[in-house]
Amino acid sequence: MISVSIAIPAPFSTELQRLRASFGDPSAKSISPHVTLLSPTEVAAERNPRICEHLQRVAEAQQPFTMLLRSTGTFRPISPVVFVQVAGGISACERIERAVRTGPLKREVAFYYHPHVTVAHHVDEGAMDRAFSELATYECSFEVSSFDLVEHGADLVWRSVSTFDFGAGVKSDSGTIR
User: I need a surface site. Which of 122, 144, 149, 175 has the fewest CB within 10 A?
Assistant: First the structure.
């Protein structure tokens, strides 16, 4: 299983991951803070070279942008999720998400794309309320100049296997995608 996302850089990622764990989210240790561009997708191994070529073309067509994360939002009651809102860089995320979800990654989606950083999921209502309240004044910004191809490992941890730099191409951590 793969996903495509924009990684939140340190020190913000460390802080958001710590906060997610403090709300009791069981995924806090297995999912790094990120903005999803392609939700988890099952793909056949033989499609991986085409997927990487596709993602490289998408990344090469992008320009760096500033992302602003600010305040909280929720998908409740439809989905038990509290998130930090993407307040700046929304149109860039939407443009990249649409481009990623073409070619070998073309798929229909069940919900309208809404870029965000999950901070509470699969927790009780009290923890959701606490996450929503405690991060209501959260704010940070950073430059985005790449996105990652992320793989769900046998140990159930999501890890970046390749980084695609905007306007530049791909850097692979492992050389191949399993």
Answer: 175
